[in-house]
């Protein structure tokens, strides 16, 4: 007879099922350790009872001698539970921010690669993990978002990540695993106190629990309170950002400058998070805020890993880093599908003035300066002046493609399919 499912853990898994949209699969991130092995073992009958598809994914980081044993254990467990398993073998580069961070990044890339968009991943972190996360964040001087620890539910990489057992103590999971006579693998690196989290787990938390037995629960509760406060601040900040918007990618820098410095920091950080960009370090952020009221013709540029901000004409722009443009030009037959350094060009030249006879090849190239275009009803205009009048930022002007017939400019294009200007008698098909 199958063991009775622990009532509380079953309820938490059913609560997590509610977060899964109809028609989407659930995936358990299966390391082979106690926590994830128990999660998969209890998830199998819960999902079967609810008629919800369940899969498991095992990430083999190849960082320890026992990695192959972990993989075999996961395969055997999934076979016994009749749960489909995907094994992803990844390469971890410890030079990219340390072994722990690099392994985490590789793990999430594997999730993105092997799990269909829209599916839900269940992670087995528990209350003790949350307490350690809060302490680590506090020791690193993190703000309220860091102190919030791990969220119960997070949407990223086209997937949803849920931690059903974030309020459950590790000792509870150990007790249930023992009752079920569950087998699991012990990760030898979990005892290596050279890793910050392990040092907290083995040397700091026991001391705290000796004095305060419910320390993990209290710290986890504090993380939950911080998470609630962070979510509330985010709502207020996003509503205020809407009032500051001055365009698709920019906000009013002068208006932002009238806010207090803590409010400015909150707004810029929340804007970054809303754009799925990393937030700037404190010094970079303060450097940016110091330059909000730069002269209209100034070109302020502040960059940090994964993002950059610019101030131009009293507008603050936030974006992913712009890659340097290579030297480039190409002949063009006027058909869609031509690859450019900024992506595939999805435009076609429907018709053109007589300057584009078959003997006159079309050339695509970056703007070089001095181009003139003859516009319908407006006559000959300097492209430079048109860009200024349209208030297109300088860094975007460098990334525009000129359509040239010899020395005659027939169009100014922003890839992949946006035509800013086209010459009289010229008709581009597929214009956005």
Structure description:
The protein is α+β, with helices and mostly antiparallel strands and 432 residues long. The chain folds into three domains: 7-207, HUPs (Rossmann fold), CATH 3.40.50.620; 245-319, Chorismate Mutase Domain, subunit A (Up-down Bundle), CATH 1.20.59; 329-429, no CATH class. It has 14 helices and 21 strands. A hairpin with a 3-residue loop joins strand 16 (372-375) and strand 17 (379-382). Helix 2 runs parallel beside helix 3 and helix 5 packs across helix 8 (196-211). It is elongated. The model has no long low-confidence stretch (mean pLDDT 88).
In terms of topology, how is this protein built?
Blueprint: H1 7-18, E1 26-29, H2 34-49, E2 54-60, H3 67-81, E3 85-89, H4 99-114, E4 120-122, H5 127-139, H6 144-147, E5 153-156, E6 159-162, H7 170-179, H8 196-211, H9 215-244, E7 250-252, H10 253-257, H11 261-274, H12 282-290, E8 300-304, E9 307-312, E10 315-319, E11 329-332, E12 338-340, E13 343-345, E14 348-351, E15 362-366, E16 372-375, E17 379-382, H13 383-389, H14 394-397, E18 401-405, E19 408-414, E20 418-422, E21 427-429
Parallel strand pairs: 1-2, 1-4, 2-3, 4-6
Antiparallel strand pairs: 5-6, 7-10, 8-9, 9-10, 11-15, 12-13, 14-21, 15-18, 16-17, 18-19, 19-20
């Amino acid at each position: 007879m199958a063991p009775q499912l622990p009532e509380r853990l079953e309820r938490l898994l059913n609560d997590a099922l509610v977060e899964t949209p109809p028609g989407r699969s659930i995936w358990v991130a299966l390391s082979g350790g106690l926590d994830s092995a128990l999660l998969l073992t209890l998830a199998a009958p819960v999902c079967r009872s609810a008629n919800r598809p369940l899969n498991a994914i095992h990430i083999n980081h190849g960082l320890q001698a026992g990695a192959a044993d972990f993989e075999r254990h996961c395969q055997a467990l999934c076979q016994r539970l009749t749960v489909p398993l995907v094994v992803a073998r990844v390469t971890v580069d410890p030079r990219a921010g340390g072994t722990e961070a690099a392994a985490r990044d590789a793990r999430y890339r594997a999730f993105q690669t092997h799990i269909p968009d829209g599916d839900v991943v269940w992670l087995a972190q528990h209350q003790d993990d949350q307490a350690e996360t809060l302490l680590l964040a506090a020791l690193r001087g993190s703000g309220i978002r860091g102190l919030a620890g791990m969220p119960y539910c997070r949407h990223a990489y086209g997937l949803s990540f849920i931690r059903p057992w974030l309020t459950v103590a590790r000792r509870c999971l150990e007790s249930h695993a023992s009752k079920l006579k569950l087998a699991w693998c012990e990760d030898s690196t979990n005892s290596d106190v050279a890793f910050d989290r392990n040092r907290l787990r083995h040397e700091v938390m026991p001391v705290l629990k000796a004095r305060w037995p419910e320390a993990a629960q209290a710290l986890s509760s504090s993380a939950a309170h911080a998470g609630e406060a962070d979510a509330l601040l985010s709502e207020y900040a996003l509503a205020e950002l809407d009032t500051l918007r001055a365009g698709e990618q920019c906000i009013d820098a002068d208006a932002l400058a009238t806010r207090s410095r803590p409010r400015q920091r909150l707004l810029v950080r929340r804007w970054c998070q809303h754009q799925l960009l990393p937030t700037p370090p404190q010094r970079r952020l303060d450097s940016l805020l110091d330059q909000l009221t730069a002269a209209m013709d100034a070109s302020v540029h502040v960059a940090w890993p994964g993002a950059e901000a610019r101030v131009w004409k009293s507008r603050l722009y936030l974006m992913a880093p712009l890659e340097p443009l290579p030297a480039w030009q190409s002949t063009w037959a006027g058909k869609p599908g031509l690859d450019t350094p900024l992506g595939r060009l999805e435009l076609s030249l429907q018709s053109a003035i007589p300057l584009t006879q078959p003997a006159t090849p079309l050339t695509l190239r970056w703007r070089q300066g001095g181009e003139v275009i003859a516009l319908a009803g407006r006559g000959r205009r300097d492209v430079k002046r048109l860009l200024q009048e349209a208030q297109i930022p300088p860094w975007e002007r460098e990334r525009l493609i000129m359509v040239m017939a010899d020395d005659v400019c027939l169009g100014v294009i922003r890839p992949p399919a946006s035509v800013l200007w086209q010459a009289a008698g010229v008709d581009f098909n597929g214009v956005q």
